[in-house]
Amino acid sequence: MSEQPGDAYLEYVRNRLPMFQRLAFMLCQDRDRADDLVQDSLERLYLKWDKADDARNTDAYARQLLVRVFLSERRTPWARRVVLVDRLPESAAATGPDAASTLAVRGALAGLAPRQRAVLVLRFFSDLSVDEVAQTLKCSPGTVKSQTSKGLAALRRALGEFEPAELGARS
Questions:
Q1: pLDDT tens digits, 20-53
Q2: Is the pLDDT of residue 168 over 80?
Q3: Nearest Cα to 24, choosing from 75, 74, 66, 85?
Q4: d(Cα 147, Cα 138) in Å, to the nearest integer?
Q5: How far, in Å, are 30, 81, 123, 147 from residue 36 at the CA level?
Q6: What ranges in 75-140 are assigned the alpha helix state H?
Q7: Which domains does the chain have, with CATH numbers?
């Protein structure tokens, strides 16, 4: 019994969907937009599945596709018209030991330029090397390094005044 070409794609998506959802959320900071981004990326991946399946690293190919869809979306007039809120709704608030820090970092990350955000997410969330990020974004390693430096500096500036409540109480 031979396997249908779509079977390999479905199996791949079943195994990698959580990874794509986390990456998309880190890029766009909005669960609904992240779902749309994943859906659009997986649709494009299906159309290019033969090429992706033959690639040396299918995960890298799919991740590159997702990041490019994100960056492409940010260039459209639609992205400039949409106004994002500066805080999460109560139902989606982070639960954990330091939710204020988590929200502050997410807010600062959302304030970065899309390319800087993509570089930081790929470098520190996806744990890719400078060369892997450069290959994903089709740019030089020097560009990745400069975008990383500028992005981290912008995050530090944005978070410079932030002080978690528990630290402020001890001061």
A1: 999 999 988 888 889 999 999 999 999 989 888 8
A2: no
A3: 66
A4: 13
A5: 10, 17, 23, 26
A6: 77-81, 99-110, 114-120, 130-137
A7: 1-85 (1.10.1740.10), 94-162 (1.10.10.10)
Instruction: Name the nearest CA neighbour of 107 among 39, 63, 154.
Output: 154
CA dist., res. 24 & res. 155, Å (int)? 19
> Which tokens in the block code for residue 60?
């890298």
User: Picking from 21-25, 85-89, 134-138, 147-151, which range would have the lowest pLDDT averaged per residue?
Assistant: 85-89
Tokens 């596709």 appear where?
A: 65
* Token pair belonging to 91: 């139902």
Identity at 130, one-letter amino acid code:
V
- pLDDT: which is higher, 164 or 7: 7
**In this structure, are residues 120 and 148 in contact, taking their beta carbons and an 8 Å threshold?**
yes
